[in-house]
Amino acid sequence: MYKVLGMTATRTFRVLWMMEELGLEYQHLDLQPGSDDMKAVNPTGKVPALVEGDDVVLDSTAIIQYLADKHGGLTYPAGTIERAQQDSFTQFILDEIDAALWSAARNTFVLPKEKRVPQIKETLKWEFTRSLKILEGRIGDNEFLMGDKITVPDIILTQCGGWARVAGFDIPDGKLRDYFKRMIARPAYKRADVLRG
Hints:
Layout: E1 2-5, H1 12-22, E2 26-29, H2 36-39, E3 49-52, E4 55-58, H3 60-71, H4 81-110, H5 120-139, H6 152-167, H7 175-184, H8 187-194
Parallel strand pairs: 1-2
Antiparallel strand pairs: 1-3, 3-4
Helix pairs in contact: 1-3, 1-6, 1-8, 4-5, 4-6
């Protein structure tokens, strides 16, 4: 059985949601980032981690793409143009949206106080909004990023949408706000959300 390590109010939620979408059995250990238990698995102490037998996979994107590939769901096959387009969405979201949110978090509470640059948050919010507009144009009228099929980047983007709300980043009215509402209404999302307590 898979073990998912990491507190749910982090990128760990992506893994839990993917597990629910794929209908997989797993054990969840709600470990704090930086805890001794997490450092025993990942020297950086970052979450999440996936334990499968004696193997450990780190990083939420690597984990959910691995699960999608292994179980044949929420992904297109490697070597197809659809997979290239899917990976393009994944990279855009990580580079332009997740990165802005993570930089804001680092300069709000992650870094030592003397290393933080709180003023950067306004620039990051501007970048975030600009990236959402670009992404909205790429999505068009699709139900999901790749059309009519939910895939890995949908999981990442939706988790970022919730993170943005908590961090005080604005998501303007429009296609993406409607998209987020559809995504969080999914039964698998709701099942994973229960774990957040």
